[in-house]
Design a protein that fits this description.
With 298 residues, the chain is an alpha/beta fold. It has helices spanning 3-12, 14-22, 26-44, 94-104, 123-138, 151-165, 189-192, 202-212, 248-260, 285-297; strands at 49-56, 59-66, 74-79, 107-111, 143-149, 173-177, 236-242, 265-270. It has an eight-stranded mixed sheet, with helices on both faces. β1 (49-56) and β2 form a beta hairpin. α4 packs across α10 (285-297) and α5 crosses α6.
């Protein structure tokens, strides 16, 4: 990890202590995090990207467009992370998405699906499906790349499984960052990586899982936890995950399973990196390294 990466890691680590002490609600996390993230994105986001609010099949979202000759007939459809409980295109993910659009030189539609606990499962999946259908219908000749991080990565996988199961158009390829794929939150790395992960304590993801999944729903349902699903027939996939995060096994398990079931999949475990490091934009050099890889892979 670079020096700047280590500094960012150290700066975010105190949030673990605060969570243990206060166990804030999802609403409070939004109240606390979103304004700071919005201000930071205004001050430190990259230039040269047009930003426009839109609706995709009735679902709100944001389009990020490179101002200088974006790639033709390639569109990224993005689902943000945040444990299904917080996060949005113009707050927590604005720096990351503008940087993604700029480095890949690609138009990116980011979807602001409804959040739990006010809107539990299947609200996020319903919004993902509605927005995907709209974008697929309005871009029939474009190469569509589905992407997402953390909860948005798991949502991307659940959406693809639903599309395949119902004979609908699948993306041409998929890019996932540190996907959250097992909402039972019981994998081995929840223990082995708990101390080195600077961002999460295991209780954070468990709380989000409880907010998102109603008691009547089995958390092993593949549309909730894709790790328990069938990966056969899914498109070419790239996954990038940090070595020092409790969600590491969420990537390892699906990577091996997808490979065994014939998916063209590449899994990259980035040594010493933390969850969603690429969202920090130009603060750390690993962001550019990661997104340059994606630009080449696309």
């Amino acid at each position: 990890m670079s020096l700047r990466g280590r500094i960012v890691s150290a700066l975010i680590r105190p949030n673990k202590f605060l969570y243990r002490v206060f166990r804030p609600s999802a609403k409070f996390v939004r109240f606390y995090v979103h304004p700071q993230a919005w201000l930071g994105s205004i001050l430190f986001g990259p230039f040269g990207i047009g930003i426009r609010r839109e609706k995709f099949g009735g679902v709100p979202g944001v389009t990020f467009t490179p101002k200088k000759s974006p790639r033709k007939n390639i569109v990224i459809v993005y689902f943000h992370g945040g444990g299904f409980c917080f996060g949005s295109s113009l707050t927590t993910h604005r720096v990351g998405l503008t940087t993604l659009s700029k480095i890949t030189n690609t138009i990116c539609h980011s979807i602001d699906y409804r959040l739990a606990p006010e809107n539990p499962y299947p609200a996020a999946l319903d919004d993902a499906l509605a927005s995907w259908r709209y974008i697929a219908e309005t871009n029939p000749d474009s190469k569509l790349i589905l992407a997402g991080d953390s909860a948005g990565g798991g949502l991307s996988l659940a959406l693809m499984m639903y599309l395949r199961d119902n004979g609908e158009r699948l993306p041409d390829s998929t890019v996932l960052f540190s996907p959250w794929t097992d909402l039972n939150c019981e994998s081995e790395t929840y223990q082995s990586k708990a101390k080195v992960d600077p961002m999460f304590v295991p209780q954070m993801t468990r709380d989000c899982s409880e907010y998102y999944v109603p008691e009547s729903i089995d958390k092993k349902d593949p549309y909730v936890s894709p790790a328990y699903g069938d990966f056969s027939g899914l498109p070419r996939t790239l996954i990038m995950t940090g070595e020092n995060e409790i969600l590491l096994d969420d990537t390892r398990v699906i990577g091996q399973k997808a490979m065994n079931q014939g998916v063209d999949i590449e899994v990259q475990i980035w040594p010493t990196m933390f969850h969603d490091w690429w969202l920090f934009g130009n603060f750390i050099p690993e962001t550019k390294q990661c997104l340059t890889k994606i630009a080449e892979w696309i």
